[in-house]
Amino acid sequence: MIKKTLGAIRAHAESCYPRECCGLVIVVKGKERYVPCENAAVGDEHFLISCEAYANAEDLGQVIAVVHSHPNMPAQPSEADLVSCEASGLPWHIVRVDQIDGNPVAGEFNTIAPSGYCAPLVGRQFFHGILDCYTLIRDWYQIERGITLPDFKRSDEWWNDGQSDLYTQGFPLAGFEIRPHEQEPEQGDVILMQIRSKNSVPNHAAIYLGDGLILHHLHGRLSSRDVYGGYWQEITRAVLRYRGNDGSSENDTAVRQAGG
Question: Hey, what domains does the chain have and what are their CATH numbers?
Answer without folding.
Answer: 3-117 (3.40.140.10), 133-242 (3.90.1720.10)
